[in-house]
Amino acid sequence: MIFAVLIPLLIACFIPALSKLKEKLHTGIFVFFIPFLIFLYFVSFIGNDFTPIREQYSWIPSLGINFDLYLDGLSLLFVLLISGIGSLVVLYSIYYLSKSERLGHFYVYLLMFMSAMLGVVLSDNIFVLYTFWELTSISSFLLIGYWHFKERSRYGALKSMLITVFGGLSMLGGFILLYVVTGTTSIQQMIGQVDLILNSTYLPLILGFILLGAFTKSAQFPFHIWLPDAMEAPTPVSAYLHSATMVKAGLFLVARFSPIFSGYEGFFIVVSVFGIVTLCWGAYMSVRQTDLKAILAFSTISQLGMIMAMLGFGTKAAVFAAVFHILNHATFKGSLFMVAGIVDHETGTRDIRKLGGLATLMPITATLAIFGTFSMAGVPFPFLNGYYSKELFFGSTLGLGSDFWSQAIPYLAVLGSIFTFVYSMYLFFGTFTGKKQFDQLPKKPHEAPIGMLISPMILVVGVVIFGLFPNIVNASFLQHAATAINSTVVYKEITFWHGFITPFKMSLAVVGFGTVLFLTRKKWQPVYQVLPGKVSFNHVYDAIVNKIGNVANRITNYYMTGSLKTYMSLILGTTLIVSLLFMYLTNGFAFNTDQLAEVSFIEVAVVLIMIVAAIATIYMNHNVAAILVVGVVGFGVAILFVIYRAPDIALTQLVIETITVALFLLCFYHLPKLRKSTDSAKTKIMNATISIGFGALVTLVAISAHSSRWFESIADYFVENSKKLGGGDNIVNVILVDFRGLDTLFEISVLGIAALAIVGLIKYRKNKEAE
């Protein structure tokens, strides 16, 4: 399994080279086989006898962070969606994106996202899951902002990242608390400690933090505002991230932790409330939109809310319905996003007000749209998979309890579904039937090339197959996913007709009222001027971001004065205050005179010379004199190392001090002469306070470090092992070369990078002067 998670990232490293061949062969052709082969690999796990599989790889064992992978029915469902829909999206993008686009960038970002999503759904370690979780935010930011020359693309990308990363950090807080309570980082081991978690005083915080991460990622009300703006991404991105994968990561998170929280009443209340409200609000707002992808964006928000609500119900019927609808939603919504992309690609616009009558010129696309929209609407036809899961949803809303909220849920479910029917009909009939307005279109419409139609065709075939044979994968696939969420779920055969029962009546009510509202849409459309009217969560987001930006600018402008002295004063002053405060709060001050060596006259003499030289530096009015006096301090330190019988360190200090003095002399030769300070008395007092205070801090830290023994000394380890492990008698050299070899390597690397930067700056300056 680890191969499946990491192979997209590894292949992404070669995409820039492969993209250079795009004139001969579209880069997407190379990429297509990656998700396709992953899909084929995981399809082999489908079967009635499937049992969970675990793989463990050591990563940071000292912190309990290992690369643990866990494949059960739930993760298998999501892996197949990620790889299967990913294959179709790549195939679709080959015809959607021209070779003039930055294909190398696009497919690198797409593979990065694919790997991140696979990591999210397969990780059993909470911190590994979080790592991949944030990688999905970063990669989606890059994909949404792919057309970075568009202001709306940059705005949508930043908005999605800020909101989802905010939720991700909250989720991390919940994970840390879970680790504190359970003492393990394994999700499956946490599930085995349900009673301990439910009895913890941290439970409300844990639940709140984790749900915040799930709600922001799955665009639940009121965090839904990022998803419509993310539609500025290319349509393949929308079809992949915003219908089938990324937005379902939050659903996966709730489903994965349901075995832990489902026994807590607050879980049912919070998740079901947010889910139902999101269902109704998303469906209601979708009818208001005029952009095809905006309609689909709000419809996605609504559908995600419905699934979230079912996970909140937590009953056997609700869990199975949620799993079934996750699969169904990926098929019809993925196909509709691709249809919207085809319409945009072939007409030059997504504005539904300019569209109409396209069925005559784009009959195949219109046919695909019929199946997608009517399935999304939950129209009771036996060949539409959306109806089955919608009816299961209605059934799951019944009998939840006798309180007001439980009794209101079925009515809210019907209300949200009515608007779902309206926007579905609005999407199809507004685009493909009615008055032809071809003269208003930027391009003359025509049917899309067959290559662009293959992917939505396959998804629509899935809609029909799961509609005609709803039980085809129940026992071998969906049942395993449902039991991973609720172990009591049992396989139940799905049928189209099982009597004139309440769920069927609810479906008829949706179709009836939905038809009336659709036919009279223009008459009641002004209601949007009242609700939401001028109120918008986007305004709240913009106000918060702008306020933070303004405050940050004021703070930055306050201290970014261009004065190096000011910067050093702020850095040293902050370090002084924070360090002293921390030492005080943690009883860090210690003074122990045991095991002190005798102080000789020569040591006192050297230290006094160093003190005099350091103080003399302040009063020097000549550059060279100041440098030489500072050099006295450095060479005095080297003499102390000699006295303390550390010749290697002394030699190192002598070399560094000599080079430093020489470099200072070269630099200061080109600088103006030192002038008498004109600082005010207040500034001088502040400078003296910082200088004396920082010196005192370093002295206190040194004394405290010598006097404190919080940990066992590592010196004995080096003495015993320098010869045995490092093969050297000189312990200091062995430490630097072997025990701290990586430190030395990185130090050299930093110096090398700095040298390259300096060379680059010199060449840049020469080029500027030549111009």
Strand content: under 5%
**Poorly predicted regions:** none
Largest sheet: 2 strands, antiparallel
Q: Write down the overall mean pLDDT.
A: 91
Count of individual beta strands? 2
Q: How do the strands line up in the largest sheet?
A: 1-2
Helix content: over 70%
**Oligomeric grouping of the chains:** single chain
Alpha-beta content class: mainly alpha
Question: How far apart are the termini?
Answer: 56 Å
Using the CA coordinates, give the radius of gyration. 33 Å
Shape category: elongated
Number of helices: 32
Structure in words:
- The protein is mainly alpha-helical.
- Among the domains are: 262-529, no CATH class; 561-710, Four Helix Bundle (Hemerythrin (Met), subunit A); 711-771, no CATH class.
- Helix content is 71%, strand content 2%.
- It has helices at 2-12, 15-18, 27-43, 73-96, 103-122, 126-144, 151-182, 187-191, 194-198, 203-217, 226-229, 235-241, 249-261, 265-286, 292-313, 316-347, 363-377, 385-396, 404-432, 450-468, 474-485, 502-519, 521-524, 537-559, 564-585, 601-619, 623-643, 647-668, 681-707, 715-726, 731-739, 741-770; strands spanning 53-60, 65-71.
